Amino acid sequence: MVAAPLDLLDRRLLFVTGKGGVGKTTVAAALAYLGAESGKKTLVCEFDAKGNLADFLGAGRTGFTPREVSPRLWAMSNDSEESLKEYLSLQLRMPLLTKIGPLARIFEYVATAAPGVREVLTVGKVLWEVRDHGWDLVVVDASASGHIVGQLTAPQTINDLVSVGLIRQQTDWMVQLLSDPATTGVVITATPEEMPVNETLELATRLKSETSVDVAGVVVNRVLPELFGRGEGEVFDTLLDPDRTSALSAAVGGDATPLLEAAELAVALRRGRASHLERLRAELDSSIPMLYVPYLFLRTHGMRATRVVAENLAAELGH
Amino acid sequence: MAPRPPARAGSIEQLLAAKEIVVTCGSGGVGKTTTAAALGAMAVTRHGGRVLVLTVDPARRLANALGLEGFGNVERQVPVSAFTEAGVKPRGEMWAAMLDTRQSWDDLVRRHAPDKKTVEQILGNSLYQNFAGRFVQSHDYIAMERLYEIHATGNYDLVVVDTPPTRNAVDFLDAPERMAEFFSSRFLRLLIAPYRSRLMNFASKPFYQVADRVLGTQFLQDIAEFFILFQTMYAGFVSRAQSVSALLRDKRTTFVAVSTLEAAPLHEVEYFIAELERRRLHLGAIVLNKVLPSYLLDSGSTRIATALEDDAKTVADAIAGAGEDRDQLARVLTEVAESWLRFSVVAHREAEQRAELAVAPEVVAAVPFFEDDIADLRGLLQLGEKIWK
Question: Among residues 59-98 of chain A, which lie with CB inside 8 Å of chain B?
Answer without folding.
Answer: 88, 92, 94, 97-98
